[in-house]
Amino acid sequence: MTKSIKWGIIGCGNVTEQKSGPAFNKIKDSQLVAVMRRDGQKAKDYALRHNVDRWYNNAEALINDAEVNAVYVATPPDTHAQYAIKAMQAGKPVYVEKPMATTYSECLAMIDASRETGVPMFIAYYRRMLPGFVKVKEMLDSGIIGKPVFFQIHYFTPAQEADFKQPLPWRVISEISGGGYFYDLASHQLDVIDFMLGPVEKVSSLTYNQKKLYKPEDFVSAGFVGQNNITGNGIWNFVAPEHSIEDRITIVGEKGTINFSCFGFTPTQLILDGKTILVENPRPEHVQLPLIETIVSELQGMGNCPSKGESAARTNKIMEEITIKK
Asked: Which residues pair with 270 in a beta bridge?
């Protein structure tokens, strides 16, 4: 059992500026002591701005830092498996950005490494600990809408300005991201369904590239069958018209319905007997902090983190089945 968690970040890019990086120093018995980025000047700049003791431009140097006893892998997905496995082989617990990896097979290799070394691994599906999402889970578990029978995911957003330029964003380069914006964004939504309703067991899909701005699909439609005979569907359009923007997950029960946003932090709608009750969905200053707290607690032998390799790998598996990747 480790008393104080000394974190090192591999890949101190944008996601670590506000969502995660500052959180490590705001949790009891947790401290960010080293950061790494291939561009050494950017790593140095990050360290200076965030008051971090040391910076590196080499991942192995950070992993081998004697003071670092836990590693946060915040690089693009194509290097998640490589760095996570190296950290675990060095005996250091690892926290990995989402999606877990570019392929399901890489996820399995990461899980195998964790089991073989006995070193824990956690994945950054942080909505599992955000207050608004925990509240939805509590409502479902309480039976207030009755037995869940059906869910829908709708996500429509216009093409990004960067999608029309070269070089393209790494998120739409499959070799780096795994599969475009679907892998980047739908992974959160699919993990939320896994968290709230249990694992999806069967998938069917239609994918298409309407605008051909990049190689991965920009339109995805999928049908699901989950545990306890729960069915569902999802539609994602990443080149939708401005007037059609939508970000909604709906869970229909035998007695009522819950509507909530995955990314917008708007109030959750609880619909019972034709009446709508609004439930707050607050956004913390650092959205990953509640999940990181559970990681620190588990590493100290006092708690349990709800986002680990096994559940995160299920999301990768579903995304591969939807996009027909073998």
From this structure: 258, 277
Tell me, yes or no, whether 135 and 277 share the same domain: yes
Q: In 3D, which of 284, 306, 4, 297 has the Cα closest to residue 125? A: 306
Do 193 and 79 share a structural domain?
Answer: no
272 shares a domain with 147: yes
Question: What domain range is 88 assigned to?
Answer: 5-125+287-304
Q: Number of folded domains in the chain?
A: 2
pLDDT band at residue 2 using 50, 70 and 90 as cut-offs = low
| pLDDT tens digits along 263-291 | 999 999 999 999 999 999 999 999 999 99
E runs forming strands in the chain: 5-10, 30-36, 54-56, 70-73, 94-96, 121-123, 148-156, 200-208, 219-226, 231-237, 246-253, 256-260, 268-272, 275-279
Q: Strand, coil or helix: what is 103?
A: coil
Q: What is the pLDDT of residues 86-121, one digit of tens each?
A: 999 999 999 999 999 999 999 999 999 999 999 999
How far apart are the C-alpha atoms of 229 and 17, rounded to whole Å?
A: 41
Q: What is the CATH number of the domain that holds 297?
A: 3.40.50.720
Is residue 306 within 8 Å of 195, Cβ to Cβ?
yes
Residue 285 sits at φ, ψ, to 5 deg, of -60, -40
